Predict the structure.
Amino acid sequence: MNVRYIDAHCHIQFDEYDTDRAEVLGRMEAEGVVGIVVGVDLASSKGAFSFALEHDFLYAAVGLHPNRVTGESFDEAAYRVLAAHQKVVAIGECGLDYFRPKEVTEEVKRMQKEVLQRHFELAAAIDKPLIIHARPSKGTQDAYQDLIPLLKEAKIGHPNLRGDIHFFVGGMQEAEAFFALDFSVSFTAVVTFARDYDAVICRIPLANILSETDAPYIAPISHRGKRNDPLAVMEVVNQIALIRGEDSETVRTTLLANARHLFSLS
């Protein structure tokens, strides 16, 4: 397979693909699209792992999404078994979400932070990168403001911590703080129809950017209102190049190299 793109974050194991998953996977292989299939709980992490074992162009990330921590305990032993396999290339998605819970109480925040720190420990122990979901409450950067000090503290004891901030929606201040902590930021197909991120995309060093789809969510402008799939990573890369005013092939090869390096892909 001639690898041309890496979708750094997709959920091809979700039920939304049950009717045509084989077709989507066939198109990914034909177009040279590698997918990092990301778990959000233990069941979907096992699903991601299974698909990664079955397909050379899929890899897995395993973790407990912050919105799941109130309904499912973090089974560290089970995640550790999955994470030890070479086809599991990251820990996550894990993090802080202050947007989606109906009530973001101090107890909810405490639980999310506690589980996130356990992901830190697992990632450091097996020396694999993190995929972090951080979603601030509307009109703020509060989740990032809480995440950055947690990462700084964790890096003191675990200097090998590194990873990607999935679906980045912050500004330059937040981005630069993450870069200093050995984290990249990734953008989804939202950049094809929303102009909110253009200024940041223009200013961020290309070496710190990954491309992702978060499929089945957030379809690009060409498929708005429909289910998304990992093939949309091609549109994401092209749009990043357009926003930056740079050669699309240069952007494609650089983002490909960035993901290969972070996830230690051959």
